[in-house]
Design brief:
Order of helices and strands of chain A: EEEHEEHEHHHEHEHEEHHEHEEHE
Largest sheet of chain A: 6 strands, mixed
Radius of gyration of chain B: 21 Å
Order of helices and strands of chain B: HHHHHHHHHH
Number of strands of chain B: 0
Strand content of chain A: 25-35%
Structural class of chain A: alpha/beta
Strand order of the largest sheet of chain A: 6-7-8-3-9-10
Oligomer: heterodimer
Largest sheet of chain B: none
Number of helices of chain B: 10
Distance between the termini of chain B: 46 Å
Largest interface: A-B, 27 and 24 residues
Number of strands of chain A: 14
Distance between the termini of chain A: 55 Å
Chain lengths: 342, 230
């Protein structure tokens, strides 16, 4: 068994309805395998089951049925002292960091080591290391109230890493931070994965977080996984529910005298850039202009959703027949193309 | 300035003296706070720890303790002193004097303090407890390392509030010959038509209350590292 691997097997969690009605399945048969040493994003709207999932991963919530294997241990089967011991292998980062106000940054970082019974000298050495690792040097003796939101989350991350866990679970780690700070924290997480080789799971509702740091992404809807895979594959799959969210299209422009089509490419072997699409249009005697689009480079590959305005040589919208043939050829080559109706 | 010749200022006899009765009030308050803290804080913790229980022993402990606390708090203090007389005789050995009064004060202060402590603990964000539970902490470690230190500023505030309530209650200790400033004010002041005694005791009580509040607030601020406190 690889260290840091997470396997969920037919995980179900059913809550009794508050009013005594039908029970609610917050998680309804989750099968998921998360490879070690990578950054996994789990996304979904609120109420999709993200929080319940992370609480099952930490043993804060007992699943109704199924297995929750973290780093080779079935968390769901543990209780009491065994569960507490298993938790020491899992680091956790919270949306609001949940630091203790009564402790300084350094004392907060040292807390998991205190609980694990690490001797003081060793604790101090480790805390000094962690303070450097997360870029907090000089602020370690401040209380949380004297730190900025980004610094507080750095303390939270250092604390999550203190006991040298194989897995770091992050529950909406940047949702309370501004854009610039979010980027810094995400860069820190990516950097930690590189340096420590730990498995990171990020639960978030922000697609930007997934685009920026995640290697894989899993979409949770109504307690079920509706899409899961490597970020590039998921983003490039125009039929899946996530590509539109990962690569959102700007609002369609209005007042254009042309036929407008949406094209999602990225999965296609033949069409790899917007330029390829424009060139194809020319073979149909049409001039294609790019009117809106989002083009992302993920893992060195271009994935785009673009809106093209098609006109014939005299500046009029192209014919129906021409359009149908053009769309047909794109579909055949793995590009999802659709006419935009005003 | 002939009012300065009043025996309330010139004597040390505890039947008449402002000074010895001030010491008696301070003694009763300090003693009451010592015992009620030793029992009331753990009781508040017990109320908090058992409050979420849906069933089992914890649920029953919460119900029973909660009921006893509610009953204790609803007794008018003057009635409590009288109702407790047989118990006081058994516990203290006598039913009059400062120590007998102190016993009733402790019994009255414990439920008051326990509820305040429960509220202090309730104000700690659940996420903090969860974060430390995630480190593999036991319930006892959570109590010692999260609940008590995080609630400390509030707990000091609750102790201050209780101490001031106890100072007020000591006035009724005279019913059982408890002495103290309140007793002096009623017997030698109000009932003897001596305004000097009345005013002097009230002034001293005000000074004591202001001092206790100032001390409590300063201590609370000293241990409070939350942003809002600055």
């Amino acid at each position: 068994m690889n260290p840091g691997v997470i396997t969920l097997d037919a995980l179900r969690k059913v809550f009794p309805a508050p009013g005594g009605g039908d029970p609610v399945a917050a998680l309804d048969g989750i099968d998921l395998h998360l490879e070690p040493g990578r950054i996994h994003g789990i996304v979904g709207r609120s109420g999709a089951g993200k929080s319940t999932l992370i609480r099952c991963l930490t043993g804060l919530e007992k699943p109704t049925s199924g297995r929750v294997e973290v780093d080779g241990t079935d968390i769901a089967a543990l209780d009491g002292a065994a569960l507490r011991a298993a938790r020491r292998n899992i680091g956790m980062v919270f949306q609001h960091a949940n630091l203790l106000d009564s402790r300084t940054a350094a004392q907060n970082i040292a807390h998991p080591l205190e609980i694990a019974g690490v001797p003081r000298a060793e604790r101090e050495r480790r805390v000094a290391e962690l303070v450097d690792l997360v870029g907090l040097a000089g602020r370690e003796h401040n209380h949380p109230a004297q730190l900025s939101g980004g610094q507080i989350q750095r303390v939270g991350i250092a604390r999550g890493l203190a006991a040298e866990p194989k897995v770091l679970l992050c529950d909406e780690p940047t949702s309370a931070l501004d854009g610039g700070t979010t980027r810094q924290i995400l860069r820190l997480l990516a950097d930690l994965r590189e340096r420590l080789g730990i498995t990171i799971v990020i639960i978030t509702h922000e697609m930007g977080v997934v685009r920026e740091v995640c290697d894989t992404v899993t979409l949770l809807e109504d307690g079920r996984i509706t899409q899961s895979g490597d970020l590039l594959d998921v983003a490039a799959d125009p039929h899946g529910p996530l590509s539109a969210e990962l690569i959102p299209l700007p609002p369609a422009p209005t007042g254009i005298e042309a036929l407008v089509v949406n094209c999602d490419y990225g999965n296609s072997e033949r069409f790899r850039t917007t330029e390829d699409l424009i060139q194809l249009a020319e073979t149909y005697e049409a001039e294609a202009t790019l009117v809106a689009g989002t083009i992302e480079t993920i893992g060195g590959r271009q994935v785009g959703r673009v809106q093209l305005a098609l006109r014939n040589r005299s500046g009029q919208p192209i014919s129906r027949e021409g359009l149908t043939a053009f769309l047909g050829e794109l579909e055949g080559a793995g590009v999802v193309a659709k006419e935009v109706t005003a | 300035m002939e009012w300065l010749d009043n025996p309330v200022f010139t004597t040390w006899d505890s039947n008449t003296s402002l000074w010895s009765n001030t010491l008696i009030t301070l003694y009763m308050t300090a003693g009451t706070m010592l015992f009620s803290t030793l029992i009331g804080v753990p009781l508040g913790l017990l109320l908090f720890e058992t409050s979420g229980a849906r069933g089992g022993l914890a649920r029953w402990v919460n119900r029973v303790v909660g009921f006893v606390v509610n009953v204790g708090r609803s007794f008018p203090f003057i009635i409590l002193i009288i109702a407790l007389i047989p118990v006081t005789r058994f516990m203290v050995g006598r039913v009059t004097g400062p120590n007998a009064a102190m016993f009733a004060l402790v019994i009255s202060a414990i439920p008051f303090l326990a509820r305040l402590i429960e509220i202090n603990l309730r104000e700690i964000a659940a996420g903090k407890v969860e974060a430390v539970a995630m480190m593999g902490a036991s319930r006892w470690q959570i109590i010692r390392q999260v609940l008590l230190p995080e609630a400390l500023p509030g707990i000091i505030g609750s102790l201050t509030t209780t101490a001031i309530a106890v100072i007020g209650y000591t006035a009724m200790a005279g019913t059982v010959g408890g002495k103290g400033l309140g007793d002096l004010a009623i017997r030698n002041g109000y009932q003897s038509y001596d305004n000097v005694v009345m005013i002097a005791t009230v002034v001293v009580l005000v000074v004591i209350v202001i001092a206790v509040q100032a001390l409590g607030s300063a201590l609370s601020r000293a241990v409070d590292h939350r942003a809002a406190a600055r």
